Every structure is written in structure tokens, then in C-alpha cells.
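Translate sequence into C-alpha cells.
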Amino acid sequence: MDFALTQEQRMVYEYGDRVSQRFDHKYWKTYADKSEPPAELYQQITDDGFLGIMVPEAYGGAGQGMTEMLLFMEGLANNGIPLLNLVVGPTMTMGLLAKHASEDMKRRLLPGGCSGDIKFCFAITEPNAGSNSMEITTLAKPDGKGSFRLSGQKVFITDANRADYAMVVTRTTPRADVKKKTDGFTIFMVDMKKKGISMTLIPVAFPVPETQWQVFFDDVALTEDDVLGEVDKGFGILFDTLNPERIILSGLCTGIGRFALKKAVAYANDRKLFNKTPIGAYQGVQHPLAIARSEIEMASLMALKAAWAFDQGLPAGEFANIAKYAGAEAGIHAVDAAIQTHGGNGFTKEYGIYDLYGLVRLLRTAPLNREMVLNYIAEHVMGLPRSY
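Result follows.
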């Protein structure tokens, strides 16, 4: 086993570190407070060729993999810049397009995605299905002549209002008409300018640049040219998107955890109360921070293992789910320990620690909640009976 990063991987990681020091956490927070994308940062990332990390060079990308995308996210988040849009666009959508789209679709969408001229969102969650994707009811009804009419509703769709295309998970055969529950799924690339698409904002309770939306499809006209993969066989490629989502979100959480702990250590070394001794000298302060750091690094290793397995074409579900669970828990514990270290200052805007808690806490619940992740590990990894 070799735990060393390659030269290219190290360069990606260090680039994330450099660009997130230039556009620092205070810069990110300015846009988070306005729920607007950090335009200058995205432009810099685009100009430097990092939107297309997972896209082959033939389509304008860097030709790298999930490992490099994870390292880029960690490099950014290590300095307090978590970008959820990098999850739904460059990772989930562009990564899947690069792997499964037709040649025509790749040439239509990927170069624009890499240049930032085409923006993407990913739409699977529905209000009445939630974590049970088998029960989604959004239907692209085929007419038998190569056309479809899409109707349904999606919820918690990140930056849907800014997307040019949505990768939409639908059924083309209703659940009641299939023998196997995973049959009948089709994935479409939907032009968000099409007639019949509307959306409403879902306000969230913590600062973040990205926005969440309910999206409604009312008899939207589609064709076979909009299909990613094959009609009725979309489920087979769906988890090529969901595993990367869990991997990269683990990296976001571990990066934010490191950022919070770095601030906590600086504060604990500087803050003096009893006998003019830094509070960081007390084990009651040290141990929670040390435990949190240990959890962060363990989660980070699991995320790297999951990314490696994915890049090697090996089954990655076990590692991706464990990484997502571990990353979210470690991120929450790290931010909480940092808040506690700061005492009352941990709740002020000046120190900027509490603002991070909402995001890491969200990732215990979304995009797949902790309980469903544990169900997967219990059943598919450990061999326990199905519990739901």
C-alpha cells in the first residue's frame, strides 16, 4: 500500500489550498450571506481549468478522476470554502456525462460545462419519495415515436435557478407496471429553458451561497436525444452519480472540520484566563479537539479509499457510504468542539464558527440521511436482515 499522492494529485490539492487562501472564508461568507454564487472565485477556478477535472481532455477537461475531485474539494474546504455547486455540477453531472453520455451529448454539453458557459443541476429527490427513490413518480411518458412528455415535481434542487440543464431522474414506466422496482428509470438532460418548467425557492436557515428549489415539470417536451444512457435502464448508471456525491461531500465535511479546528487551536493558544495560562493547555480543551482531529483524518482516509475504488472501476458503495457517514459525523464534532473552545465567542459573527454548523449538520441528513446510510452498511456490508 502506498498512501502518497501522485505529483498531479498533490498539485490539485495544493491548488485548492492556494485559491481558497486568496478567496478566503470571509470572501465566501460575504456571498453566503447573500445566497449568491462567489462569482470571482468560480471564474478563477474556471479559467484555471478545474471545473472539468472529471472530464476527458477531448471535451475540454483535465482527464482526471474522483480522487482528484475529492482532493480539490478538501483543499478548498480546508480554508473555509465549501462549494456545494461543485458537487452537483462538475462531480455528479459532468462526471456522469463523461462516463455514460452518447458522443453527441458529450460534445453538446461537456465543453460548455468545462468553460463555465453551461451550468448544471441534478434532480432526483421528490417530496413524497424522499430517501426512497424507488417510489419517485415524475414520469416522462413516451409516445412510442421517440418523444416524451415530462411531468412531476422535484425538491431540494441545488441552484436550479442558475442551471442551463438539469440531469433529471424519472420513470418512463410507472412503478406499478414493472416487475422489478429498479426497472423503468430513465435519466434525461433537460434544457431548463423549455416550456412547462417552473420553480419556487426553499429558504434555508443557515448562510450558504447555493440556493434550494422546488422544480415543477408540466408536460415538458423531450426527445430521445435528451436521454442519458438507455430508456428504462437508467437505474444501472444512477449509482455512478450517487457514490461520487457521498465521497465528495465527505471531503467537504472533513475540510470544514480542519478549518474549524485550525481556528480553535489558534484561539486556544492565544486565550488566557487562569494564571495567565493559554486555555489550550487544559486537557478539557485539548482532548475534544484531538478526538475531533482523529475522526477527521480517519474519515478523510475512507473518502480517499472510496475515490480510489471508484476510479479503479471497483465496487465503491461500501466505502462511499462509510465515508459519507464518517465525514458528516467528524465534521459536526469538529465544528462543535471549535465552538466550545471559543466559549461565547463561538456564537458571534466576528469569529465565524457557528455559521459553519448548519452546513455540516445538514450533511448528516442530506443527501442521504445517516439512518439510511447505516441501513446500507448493516445490510449490504455486514449481512444483516433488511430492516425497512
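Note: The first helix runs from residue 7 to 22.
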